[in-house]
Amino acid sequence: MKADEMWKVSTGKGVKVAVVDTGVNPDTPSLKGQVLASEVPKAVSYKATEDYLGHGTSMAELIAGTGAGGGLRGLAPGAKIVPYRLAMKGMKNEEDKKRAPELADVIRAISDSDAKIINMSFGEDIERPEDLAAIKYAQSKGKLMVAGTGNDAQEGSFIGYPAAYPYVIGVAASDESGKVGRFSEHGNYVDLASPGLNVPTWCDNTFRSYCTGQGTSQATAIASASAALIWSAHPDWTANQVLASLIDTAGRDWAKNDPSTYLGYGLIRPRKVLENSGINPGAAGTDPLAKENAAGVTKAADASPSASASTSSQAPQNTSDGPASATGSSSESSDNTAMWVALGAAAVLVLGGGAFAVIRSRRRA
User: Fold this and answer.
1) Please, are residues 234 and 10 in contact by the beta-carbon 8 Å criterion?
2) Where does the pLDDT of residue 292 fall: very low under 50, low under 70, confident under 90, or very high at 90 and above?
3) Buried (b) or exposed (e) across 189-224, using 16+ Cβ within 10 A?
4) How far apart are CA 26 and CA 49, in angstroms?
5) Which CATH superfamily is domain 3-350 in?
6) How far apart are CA 173 and CA 232, in angstroms?
7) Which residues of 26-50 are buried (b: 16+ CB within 10 A; e: fewer)?
8) Structural domain spans, the chain
9) 306-347 pLDDT, tens per residue?
10) What is the structure's pLDDT at 321?
C-alpha cells in the first residue's frame, strides 16, 4: 500500500468510523484522543468504552491508531472512532448481556449520526429481519458498511451475516502475498479481500501486550481504514463512489465481471485511488454491488454445508481467529509480495500493488 506515500495525500482526517464490536478502550496509548465516546447516543451507549475482550480496541487501532507509546499505527491515523458495544460470544457477565444494545438499534443510531463508515468485525449464521431492515435504513442514509465474511471455512463453513446482507461489503482475509486464508469464508457474498493474516492485535482485555492474530475481523478493519482514506481525500463522494473506486482498483488477474468466490473483486489497493487525482468514481447513485444485491446469497460450489442452526450462538461472534503463529491458504499467489503491519510507533501497512491469482470458482456455479 505504501502507506507513507498515501499519508501525503490522506490520513483519513474528517472521517468518523463507527466500530461496532466488544467495546473500545479509549485509553490505550495508540487511541488517546481518537475515540469520540461522547457522540454515542445514550440509548445504545452501554459500556461502549469498556472492551471485555480486547477485540474492538484492536480493530479501532488497526483503523485509526496513532502509533503513540509503541502501539499500533492504523492505516487511517487521522480518522476518528465512534465506539459501540454488542453482546458477543465471549461476554460472560449476564447483566451485560441483558443491557447490551441490539445490532439493529445500533445500526439505526449510527445511521442518524455523521459517522460515514460502519465497521462490523463479527458474524453469525442467522439472518435477522430486524437487522436487514436497519441495514437498508443505513444504506438510505448514505453509510458505507463493512463486515467480515467469517473464519469457519475449514470447519463446516456457513453464510456469515451481516456480511451477506445486501449493501454490506463482505471482506475476506488474505496473507502478505495475496493468498486467501484457508479459514476465510467464501461464497458470492465476498466482495473484496484485505490483509487478515499475521496481524498484531491485543492479546486480551488487560491491554498489556500484542499477539499475532488472523481473521476476517482484521481484514475488515483494514478495509474500513482504506475507505476512510479515500473518503477523506474525496469528501464529496458518496458511499457508492468510495466502494466503486475500491472495486475498480482492486488487485486481481481475473475479469472484473467474473468475481472470485474467495477474494471477490480483488485485494484492496487504496493507493491506486489516491494517486490518481482525476479518477472517475462513477455515478453517485449507482450501487456497485447492485447485481449481487439483487441476486441474493449463494455458497461457492465447493463450499462445505452450512453449520446447523443448533450450533449457532445467540450472540454474534467476532471474526478473529485469535493468536496464531502460522496459517495456510487455499490459493496460489502471483510473484507480487507484500510487507505489512509491524509493531511500534512507526507501525504501518505497506502492501504490494500487483494482481493476485487464486484457485477460484465462479460466484454462482
Assistant:
1) no
2) confident
3) bbbbbbbbbbbbbbbbbebeebbbbbbbbbbbbbbb
4) 6
5) Peptidase S8/S53 domain (3.40.50.200)
6) 24
7) bebbbbeebbbeebbbeebbbebbe
8) 3-350
9) 222 222 234 577 877 654 322 233 332 322 223 233 333 333
10) 64
